[in-house]
Amino acid sequence: MDTMRDRFAPVVSRLLDEDPRVAVVLAEIGVDGFAEARRRHPDRVINVGIREQLLVGAAAGLALTGLRPVVHTFASFLVERPFEQVKLDLGHQDAGAVLVSAAASFDWPAGGYTHMAPGDVALLDTLDGWTVHVPGHPDEAAALLRHAVAAGDDKVYVRLSVQSNGEGLPVDGARFRTVREGGSGVVVAVGPMLDAVLAATEGLDTTVLYATTVRPFDAEALRRAVRVARPDVVLVEPYLAGTSTAAASDALSDVPHRVLGLGVGRRELRRYGQLAEHIAAHGLDARSLRERIGGFLEAGVRA
């Protein structure tokens, strides 16, 4: 199966052909995938070189002229390194763009800590007005990329990952999807965490919600779920643990509830290892998730 990133260049190249407002801004990463598109649209496929601050600044300039820039590189170089430009050039100037990342939290362990960005969504949470898509399958990535580009002049972050669920589900760029219903609690699985969550909760009487758009947070879906299930909520996110716990608590502010945030820990893993080893080390494999989710929900029953 191809990866989410494999879908990126073909989808956006078609959007360049279809919409004269679309422009692509790259910082060396991914340039080869746009070779043909650059021949067709030399004025709208721009490579700024390894200059990530310029990457975002140039995109903001294009947006202010009326274009819809799609900006791409590794997450750590797209959100963390040029954060001041994301904050000021895009946010402060009300300039919209579609930021599309690669490498997720630790997709390429051999790249070391410089190429890991588990805090990207939490960092964007410090800013106003960002939509954040976290697809869990290449089909969902393609759909959400199109949705993001078509979203007027909004500020949108699309987080691509090597990790993927076995099957894609219909996504609308807004709402959580109910995958399983139960009464003993609610588990929200974000993007590529769905398969592991379904395996971890097999046989448990839990509702499983699937989230591929996490900002804005679908508060109403969570509120509906806790009307039929005990208001014990577990969030399983493929980035920094606890990123969405405040959003979940805000959604249930008038309901007595418990929230557990599972995701990537803050402790730096200094051995390169393999992707699966990093997943396990952060407790995001199915077996670890079953222990942590089961223990949390059982404690709620005893309380």
From TrEMBL:
User: Which species does the entry assign this protein to?
Assistant: Streptomyces fumanus
- On the tree of life, the source organism's domain of life is Bacteria
Q: Which PANTHER family match?
A: PYRUVATE DEHYDROGENASE E1 COMPONENT, TRANSKETOLASE-LIKE PYRIMIDINE-BINDING DOMAIN-CONTAINING PROTEIN
Name of protein: Transketolase
Pfam families for this protein: Transket_pyr (PF02779), Transketolase_C (PF02780)
Q: Which InterPro entries match?
A: PDH/Transketolase (IPR051157), THDP-binding (IPR029061), Transketo_C/PFOR_II (IPR009014), Transketolase-like_Pyr-bd (IPR005475), Transketolase_C (IPR033248)
Q: Which GO terms describe its molecular function?
A: magnesium ion binding
The residues covered by the Transketolase-like pyrimidine-binding domain are: 2-167
